[in-house]
Design brief:
The complex is a heterodimer.
Chain A (H helix, E strand, L loop, with lengths): L4 E5 L3 H24 L8 H29 L12 H9 L20 H26 L4 H4 L6 H25 L8 H8 L1 E5 L19
Antiparallel strand pairs in A: 1-2
Helix pairs in contact in A: 1-2, 2-4, 4-6
Chain B lengths: L11 H25 L3 H9 L24 H9 L5 H5 L3 H4 L29 H4 L24 H4 L20 E3 L4 E3 L4 H6 L6 H8 L43 E2 L2 E2 L26 H5 L19 H5 L9 E6 L6 E2 L2 E2 L1 E3 L5 E4 L3 E6 L5 E5 L3 E3 L12 E2 L1 E3 L9 E15 L4 E2 L15 H4 L2 H12 L7 E11 L13 H4 L22 H34 L9
Classes of the chains: A mainly alpha, B alpha+beta.
């Protein structure tokens, strides 16, 4: 028998907006960035570089709002890493999922991320993405290095780090998009990131206030 | 059965969409408004060069001194000096007179009037009378020329405006005194109407400068790839500054002059030692692009402005030289001397230019040539006939000075003219060839006797230099900075012509990381492998998820609604 699905409100309005804005920015950055890296010809080097610069700077500014949101809402706690149940999650994705087992760490409003996600998203938000932004910003400001007191930098080393970061993000993106299909239904995770409401299996212990029937109050 | 609570249209979505659109619109609008305004570099340049009608307070046609009968050039010069009493003294100090690099010690004898070697007609020693038809003087026919004689200065060749004043090609700078036919080109040279010519004097026009500088090396476009007869009446597409349908600049608009010193000479020191614009110093010369355009000439925040520290303007703005008339790219003297039935041979190539001449050897010409690019701080290193060479590889007779680490060096476009010259096998030096016959019976001159041994011996003896008597041929190269024929901005070199891994214009430029041109192979290999691995991994995972439930269903095990 199927379990009864329920809807819980997971992602606030800003969070969803930020997710999709950032994904758009990152995808455009990947497309233009790899063109600048001579992987293919699409816009032409000059236009690709221009778009890459504008989008990169926009991302930097938008990211500041995200950091502010994390800090003021306490959502940063969702990124605190843990090893608890890590093994179970790994076992689930590499074995249990094929057998139709339930997820060992179901999503909750105050714990949206399983241990594996916590680690991945912490690495992304606290390390990889800021690193890309920093190296990208330095790349963009190449002519001001002397004035900024960073004249010792090497453009080549910077390029290597920035390119490594790009490949890491590309790899993440592939896995990330695939992982969206592993929810209750194929589209559950994506729907949740659009509407805020995630469809879950009923056995999940959900607080009463989280229940879908209260969604009319527009969430967060 | 499943019971799913109805989902209302998401309240957050329109908001998110609106915000994204707003953000995008801001970026696009910023880019568009920056484009609409004129680039600051153009505004500056237009202000700096705004047309002023030439002011002159004297009508030379009314000067009694210029109405007297003249029989020769020096007589005209004396008439000029009767008023302009410092002019010749000033001119004597300029490179147009000395043909020597003013910044190098006299003992080095660096300069075309000294012992510098080029791979055209090599050196003027013993060939003066032919070469000095482009000297702004009269009578430099041998090494005894009196450089201190004021009347020897040729004022007219630079200042006359009738267009009828012509120096005879083999007359040591003198015009003819009676009509003379040159059988070689079928042209008849006439004695000038000195009064008319002298009364026409004014500021040098494009024609005055071009008469010599467009024909350096003895013919149109032989030497410089960016200076030839097509610049007498160019359109804007050929030269955005000189185009008759554009700014219509004369040469002296940029080649600012002070006491007859004309800015723009490039030898061992740069034409301009400082990078400053007229805004920083309103009396600076206009010789560099940045004099008028500044070092941030493109629209604000344009990436192109970030290039001006390391890339010369010319690199992007002169996509090719010799865009109308062909220029000579190769001159192999070793092939000279072949005859057919005892008669000299003359062959033409598909461009209509000489491909072979018995007197001179083999030529190659080209049109619309992509420059070669080198680090360049404005100085050029020249070889003289005294310098030791390494004949085991091509000898750079002149080469740009500059390294990536030199803060004054920028990437600059060059025409490189290559060819073969004779060198002294024992002394390991290049040689001076006696080419131009001094008399009808001067068999030592190669163009009379076709005997290399005699011609080299004569040339070296004439210059007072040691010669072993043994010679062989060596390949040589000679560089010309490309700075004229600036194209309109629609035709600039596109970013991707340099920022590409395949066929980059700057493939040979080292010492700088260029996005698009440079990549690290191992990094790309690992990166793409990681991405491909991730893709393969998730596909495998997905397929496994697709097929395992079927097996599970058969076994009557746990059901799963999806996947």
């Amino acid at each position: 028998m199927l379990k009864n699905p329920v809807l819980i409100y997971l992602y606030s309005r800003y969070e969803r907006f930020w997710h999709w804005l950032q994904s758009l920015l990152i995808i455009v950055l990947l497309i233009t960035g790899f063109e600048v890296h001579n992987a293919y010809r699409l816009l032409g080097f000059g236009r690709a570089a221009d778009v890459h610069n504008y989008i990169g700077l926009s991302w930097l500014i938008a990211f500041a709002f995200f950091v502010f949101w994390l800090a003021t809402t306490g959502e940063w706690r969702q990124y605190v890493p843990t090893t608890k149940k890590m093994f179970e999650v790994i076992r689930y994705y590499s074995y249990g999922i094929f057998k139709g087992e339930s997820h060992p760490v179901p999503k909750r409003r105050d714990a949206k991320h399983n241990p594996l996600q916590r680690l991945t998203y912490l690495a992304l938000a606290a390390f990889l993405l800021p690193l890309q932004m920093l190296t990208g910003f330095l790349f963009w400001g190449y002519n001001n290095w002397q004035a900024w007191g960073v004249g010792f930098l090497s453009l080549k080393v910077l390029a290597v780090v920035h390119t490594m970061g790009a490949f890491a993000i590309l790899t993440f993106l592939i896995v990330h998009i695939y992982m969206t299909t592993t929810g209750h239904k194929l589209t559950s995770h994506i729907k949740a990131m659009i509407t805020g409401w995630e469809e879950m299996e009923d056995e999940t212990v959900v607080e009463d206030w989280e229940r879908a029937r209260r969604k009319g109050s527009s969430g967060f | 059965m499943r019971k799913v609570t109805t989902i209302h249209p998401p309240a957050g979505l329109p908001w998110a969409t609106a915000c994204v659109l707003l953000a995008m619109a801001t970026v696009v609008a910023a880019a568009a408004s920056a484009q609409a305004a004129q680039a600051p570099g153009r505004v500056l340049a237009q202000q700096a060069t705004r047309e002023k009608s030439l002011w002159i307070t004297s009508d030379h046609a009314r000067h009694e001194a210029l109405k007297q009968p003249f029989a020769s050039g020096p007589q005209v010069t004396q008439a000029c000096l009767s008023c302009h009493n410092q002019a010749a003294l000033q001119f004597h100090k300029t490179i147009h007179w000395t043909w020597m690099d003013p910044s190098t010690a006299q003992s080095a004898q660096l300069g075309k009037g000294g012992l510098s070697i080029n791979n055209f007609c090599v050196n003027i020693q013993s060939n003066e009378a032919r070469c000095t038809s482009c000297h702004a003087g009269y009578g430099w026919k041998d090494k005894n020329f009196d450089f201190s004689d004021q009347s020897r200065v040729d004022c007219l060749v630079c200042h006359e405006h009738t267009g009828t004043y012509k120096k005879y090609p083999a007359g040591a700078g003198n015009p003819v005194s009676a009509p003379t036919l040159i059988t070689g080109n079928g042209k008849t040279y006439l004695p000038p109407d000195y009064n008319k010519v002298a009364q026409s004097v004014s500021r040098p026009s494009r024609k005055n400068c071009g008469t010599c500088h467009f024909s350096g090396g003895g013919g149109d476009g032989v030497k410089h790839g960016d200076l030839d007869a097509s610049l007498f009446k160019p359109n804007k597409a050929l030269d955005v500054h000189m185009g008759l349908d554009g700014q219509n600049f004369d040469c002296v608009r940029c080649h600012s002059t002070s006491l007859h010193h004309i800015a723009g000479r490039v030898y061992a020191t740069p034409a301009a030692t400082e990078r400053k614009s007229l805004i920083e110093d309103d009396l600076t010369s206009k010789i560099t692009c940045e004099s008028c355009h500044s070092d941030a000439p493109h629209k604000n925040h344009a990436k192109a402005n970030d290039h001006t520290d390391r890339v010369a303007c010319q690199t992007c703005h002169i996509p090719a030289f010799a865009r109308v008339n062909p220029t000579k790219m190769w001159w192999d003297w070793s092939k000279a001397g072949k005859k057919k039935d005892g008669k000299p041979i003359a062959l033409k190539d598909e461009l209509g230019k000489p491909a072979y001449m018995t007197k001179k050897g083999e030529f190659r010409w080209a049109r619309n040539v992509k420059p070669e690019y080198y680090w360049y701080n404005g100085s050029i290193r020249h070889v003289t006939v005294k310098d030791k060479i390494d004949p085991s590889r091509p000898v750079p007779l002149s080469e740009p000075v500059g390294t990536p680490n030199d803060p004054n060096a920028r990437i600059f476009p060059f025409k490189v003219h290559r060819g073969k010259l004779p060198y002294d096998k024992v002394n390991k030096t290049l040689t001076i060839i006696h080419l131009f016959p001094k008399t009808k019976d001067d068999k030592a001159a190669y163009w009379k006797g076709y005997d290399w041994a005699k011609a080299i011996q004569y040339g070296m003896d004439y210059a007072g230099l040691p010669y072993s008597g043994e010679f062989d041929w060596v390949e040589t190269s000679y560089v010309f900075p490309t700075t004229h024929m600036v194209a309109p901005r629609e035709n600039v070199v596109a970013c991707g012509e340099c920022h590409t891994a395949s066929g980059s214009r700057l493939a040979g430029i080292t010492g700088v990381y260029m996005p698009g041109r440079d990549n690290i192979r191992w990094l790309d290999a690992i990166g793409w492998l990681a991405a491909a691995g991730a893709l393969a991994g998730v596909l495998l995972h997905g397929l496994t998820r697709l097929f395992t439930p079927m097996l599970q269903n058969k076994d009557g095990r746990k059901e799963k609604s999806s996947c």
